[in-house]
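Hi everyone, sorry if this is the wrong subforum. Our group has a chain we'd like a structural model of before ordering constructs, and none of us has done structure prediction before. Sequence below.
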Amino acid sequence: METLDIVRLVGGLAILGIGAWFAGRRIGFLVRLLGVAQPMPERVAALRSRWTSLFDEVLGQRKILQWSGVGVLHAFIFWGFIILQSQTVEAIGEVFDPQFAIPVVGSSEWLGFLQDLFTLLVLAAVVGFVLVRLVQAPGRMGRRSRFAGSNLDQGWYVLLFEFALLYSVLIVRGVRAAEGTLPYPDGAFLSMWVGDQLASLGEPTLDVVGVVALLCHIAVFAGFAVYTLHSKHLHIFTIPFTIPLSRKPKALGKLETKRIDIEQMGEDEILGVGALEQFGVKRFLDFYSCTECGRCQSQCPAWNTGKPLSPKLLIMDLRDHLWDRGPSLLSGEATNGEVPPLVGDAPGAAAVIDYDVLWSCTTCGACVEECPVDIEHVDHIMDLRQYQAQMESSFPSEAGGMLRNLENSGDPWGLGASKRMEWAAGRDIKVLGEDVEPDEVEYLFWVGCAGALEDRSKKTTQTVADLLDAAGLRWAVLGQSETCTGDPARRLGVEYLFQMLAEQTIETLNEAGVTKIVATCPHCFNTLRNEYPDLDGHFEVVHHTQLLAHLIAEGRLSPQSPVAKRVTYHDPCYLGRHNEVYEEPRSVVDAVDGLEAVEMPRCRNRGFCCGAGGARFYMEESIGKRINTERIDEALALEPDIVSTACPFCLVMLDDAVQDRTGSGGLEEGQVRVVDVSSILADSLLPVASVNGDDRHPSAAT
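Answer:
Right subforum, don't worry. Here is the predicted structure as tokens:
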């Protein structure tokens, strides 16, 4: 055996052996660490229905390509990563046989062509990502950069690794082309060109260059694999497990339910997550999978208005804490020094996650919607909130009154059942079980706490009631028997109170014989439709915009008078992102002649929150710019006459922001109205009352 052959064989085996040892050691650590997490058998059980997501989200790069520019670059690298593994197989084979070709397909012209094509595409993507990182660097864009807080050096190292892999393998293939041993010369156009440039070196020199390039390529490959297992690019290996274990169709809408029986709870039973080992296995995989791309951060309403919460940084901080504590978790030995709590009990307190970070979240779901690796940021936050609220009684003090009111009066304001029908004063409203029986109505109208008790939302309730009458629909309400669905308690983290209210409501609905419900509040809609089934409450639930759109399509509601106004629509998070109801509210508006509908830049699945979700409606907002002000400024830039929405909380938040901008803010009194989309429809059906801004519409039947 010649000297170069010995160097190639011994050197190649040594590099591969060392790389395999370090990689195997790290993989063993990561796998054993997953064993520390809590099992999530329901996720494993759902794998059969989720495995196809690998084709859609991974192979198809669906979520990545939603950001078209960088999405295409990433797709080039990802597809190139798959295709170009064949080059690495060839390189490893060449350690043993200088003329190695992959069995069966190793001499196919199409394989050589694809290899060289994707080599060029990946090189172009590497250059593209270099430019993206330079343009969007935090040093240039500050907090607005989605890379703010990310480990930027790791990204640069990976780009260097990718370039080195491509450069070294091109030399290897070029040498084989020059020596006439490349198995597919007609297809590998780039390798043949490189071979032409190297041909003048002569055979002895080519042999040396080929061996050196081969060993360099294998060394870069082994180093890249080991580095990937220790960096944010670990997602390359974890995505095949993370995405199929995600909630379907996406981790929005409902929260997962673990039944709580306070009376049967043991002293050691924990509610929520107060330590790393109490997180579920999918949460650990989320830590492993974060790419630090910052898409979640770029869309987060809290981060964009100067709050300390970044979904990306929250996951990164928990991940880094897991790496720090990993060895002690596996060994069972005490950690040197005191382990910080996961969440602080006050702003600035020593903890992994700051108090204000946890409580700034509106649970709008923008982070989950954007994440290309299906990280469930909202679920992590809710795990932490449940522990803080239920085990530590640590939450913003102003929310305490809301919780007491829910428990004692059944509504967040503590007004009680006696006030629930005041919106219906002077109207002939049927109460289910008192005035009509279940078989006499088509829908139960779920009014909701805001719709019954908040003055501005009452007008929407009255308008919807008029429209249902105008359509000839048979409907009724629960009246004083209606209570809060429990959504504010659940989003604050007080799960046991949510379940108590939910079970009470489900019992009431079942006793009343309810099967079909229409709700004006997206939060009630989401809870009744998505979350009550986990507590054995099964009902057919629609949002009022869905029902109105259906009634218009059937011709049971037909707009009459044109409304010459410029209108923009704000997507409520719990109607849009959480439940993907985008078209129906717009179709209600579009049915009215004369309107000029304009979209805000952030709309539909990238809509910007009003700031009320996650029980934030009941808390003070004292850090940074108010979220509702940020949103209304975006709307006002379009110079609308009407800002429409389909949620009572969005209506209040946006109307408050308009009032703040009136006068000293540059708006004149009454210049811009904030209304529910149902009011726009009523403007056309009942022009006098609505256009003149009366408190309520007259009977729609007239």
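For your construct planning: The mean pLDDT is 93. DSSP finds 31 helices and eight strands in the chain.
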